[in-house]
Amino acid sequence: MTSASDVMTFENAVTMGLSRDEWDLINQRLGRTPNLCELGIFSAMWSEHCSYKSSKKWLKTLPIDGPQVIEGPGENAGAVDIGDGLAAIFKIESHNHPSFIEPYQGAATGVGGILRDVFTMGARPVALLNALRFGAAEHEKTRHLVGGVVSGIGGYGNCIGIPTVGGEINFDKSYNGNILVNAMAVGLANSDRIFRSAATGPGNPVIYVGAKTGRDGIHGATMASAEFSDETESKRPTVQVGDPFTGKLLMEACLELMASDTVLSIQDMGAAGLTSSSVEMASKGGLGMEIDLDLVPAREENMSAYELMLSESQERMLMVLKPDATETARAIFNKLDLDFMPIGRVTETGRLILLKDGGTACDIPIGPLVDDAPEYDRPHCDAPIRKQLASSDITNDAPISHMLKTMLGHVDLASRRWIYEQYDSQVMADTIAGPGGDAALVRVHGSKRGLAMSTDCTPRYVEADPKIGGAQAVAEGYRNLSAIGATPLAVTNNLNFGNPEKPEIMTQLVESVLGMGDAARQLDTPVVSGNVSLYNETGGKAIQPCPVIGMVGVIENVDDAVGNCFVAAEQDIFVIGQGDKTNDGWLGVSIYQQHHGDDGIYAPPPLDLVAEQKTGSFVRQQILGGSISAAHDIADGGLVVAIAEMAMRSGFGADIAVPTTGNLHGWAFGEDQARFVVTTADSQELIAAAKEAGIEITKLGMVSDQGELKFGDSDTISITDLNAVFEGCIPALMAG
Amino acid sequence: MVAIEQLTSRRPALVWHKEASLDAADLVIIPGGFSFGDYLRCGALAGRSPIMNAVLDHAARGGAVMGICNGFQILTETGMVPGVLIRNAGLKFSCRNIGLRPCETLASPFTIGLDLGEDLTIPIAHNEGNYFADADELDRIEGNGQVAFRYAASDAAGPVNPNGASRDIAGVLSNNGRVLGMMPHPERAMSKLHGGTDGAKFLLKSLEALVS
Fold first, then answer.
1. Domain span at residue B143?
2. Which among A282, A402, A410 has a CA at the least distance from the CA of A354?
3. Strand ranges of the sheet holding A316-321, from the earlier edge strand across to the other edge
4. What pLDDT, in 10s, does the model give residues B163-178?
5. Closest Cα in chain B, distance from residue A334 (Å)
6. Contact assignment for B190 to A429 by CB distance below 8 Å
7. What is the ipTM metric for this complex?
8. Which tens digit of pLDDT belongs to each residue from A366-407?
9. Would strands B27-30 and A715-718 be described as parallel, antiparallel, or unpaired?
10. Which CATH number belongs to the domain containing residue B152 in this structure?
11. For chains A and B, what is the number of CB pairs under 8 angstroms?
């Protein structure tokens, strides 16, 4: 069946990213040398991106179970029970490499891909979030990349009509040559109507739907599994092109079809396109599949079997239908002018057989493709021990207001308005809290129930101590959801690291996954889906490690939620999770330290997961009970930055008492964890409740209608001045 | 759909764009969205959808039509309201609250219930909302009382005119006052949970004027 010119060699395998051992294994399993199409299929399925070969061993340590979990990792997305017979279905996924090469299309197709993962499960997507990392603000490529990625995210999300409700973004020079673009989608389905991908019923038709297949994105999964080099620009053709309008039609057609009783299994064509979708469906069903490639709707002429199988053209799905349902299904897709083509059938052979031009283009056993995918226990080492930074080593005597004003103009703290106003955060009119809050809140259509969600990671903590950093990402999500009154349910993770073949990078991965697991167990938020992106390096230099957590929770009644703005003058302001003797704080690897131009790596703030759970639960209960009127978690920039944010977004000011001894800047800008700033109209009740629950609480001051922040008796700054710096930073950066 | 149902307790009929006829209706609404992806000029393809002939007939009979956002773009494509909508002056999509000032107009069900001195706060979300017509045309529609809304100062952050629209125009009427095109989204300001109820107020006044 293989022509002589089509017989592959080890050299061919190397160019597709396969190792000697992997090449030998392929030959042994096939009992012969593979042809181009077959080798391409092995290379894609065994790529880091599809096989998780470096991370699998550690991913298995994560908690994935809980009474709320309907579907854990392994399907297109995870699913949790949110009550009322509904499930929240969600996942986060990276599109880092394509977005660096072609920021608009890279980011747009990242959004399109994650939406397909969610509606493939039978869920209507209701919200999008993202986590972005760019290089230093002053780096020559940063403006171009930020502009392209933001408009690409908006371009796809706005057009398809799913609101982009939240996200996070940081800048660091380690991302100069390798940005991170992680997109998260959240959808809703009836918990008894969730669709899975395992093929069933030998003889049943395999249907291709959606857009036609072109030569775009060929071997994207392999590209995403290699380091960047100077030749990266030449990889532009491996970036896919998004078509959100076709995405919208495909989404509506699939949801309409899935509402009928005709779909047996369904899988989107994401990374490695037709290859991974057909192999995964057959493998999960323990069956085989036969596909006639001449029937695949193609956009270009003379596409080879290799090209058809490895194309990553967007907006395509593969499904297995009940045998008598084909015509019903065809009518739905035809109404929306989408391709609908039976291209093969499920078989009992356990083999993937591809026909082309009257011959067999591929005949490989599916078992080895999936089960023999390599799994590596890559060497790692002990995490580095970091020195603790004493506040007095770095602080000065400048007034708090002076420091606050300059820090709010720091690119990692400044307002993200320039970015999020380019996203339609309201379409479908169920967004209760969009970007700018601690967590986003989207109402379940036609009910009072709300879905809360956030994305979080603090890479400088992960770099300093990967175990604490991995746990902190979960804890911060927990805090963010608790701060609006929502109960966290589960997480999805996106593990962005450098080259795992380097022990120090593998250490970051291992330790942060272990930390993440500890936190997810303690906070009862199992990991239900996720994505791993490795080889985020350019010229041999790795990114700051960035294991992003996307968290989803629920609130019974959206009327009970609170925001993070002051709501009324003369309400008392408290810090929860901090005692009244506190007069210093943790400045190691804080924004304050960065702001002082000290790029030393010190120990990050310690994390007490029990305290996180106690304070988070307390704040949530007090919000739902009505005794907290606004809440904000204390994160980047510390206590005083949190207060300033609550003031700037509301227009109210505040009078804040400051300690008379200790280290004032440490107290103001330290990033100690497990703390919230809250306001209340009933201080006695809140204090009594805290005492009862054994939670530390300290009064900081009072909301004022004076339009200024006062720290003690003599240090005052106007909200207008702060807003000018806070709002001005990113527009100035983008104006160049 | 949801906004109208919330206000009237009646479910509006949804009509597919490939259909060619419309049943009698008090009001036809062409909502926002990215029709055909807006890959070509916004609204250009949808303006030529089969249903638009029926909408034109409905308007020719004096029927009321409201186009919101992409719906406004579609109305300009069919010539049902004057002017065109071009790319925002900032060349960026913009989603935020704006102030909306009702103007003195010719007799129109869409403006008759509004207080001239009372600005509304309603969100916008568009990339091509920059209203454009030449000076003579602008003078003419202003003279006729066809300008329904202008952008106005509000508590919301950002410039008063969000997109560079000529003479701050946010919504225009046909020359008989029965067709309205507007960029802001009243259906996104329907309750306190949305952050405001001015959209509901405007829609309710329009519906009252149309149905009474």
1. 2-210
2. A282
3. A263-268, A316-321, A205-210, A339-347, A288-292, A351-356, A359-365
4. 999 999 999 999 999 9
5. 13
6. yes
7. 0.95
8. 998 988 889 999 999 999 999 999 999 999 999 999 999 999
9. unpaired
10. 3.40.50.880
11. 65
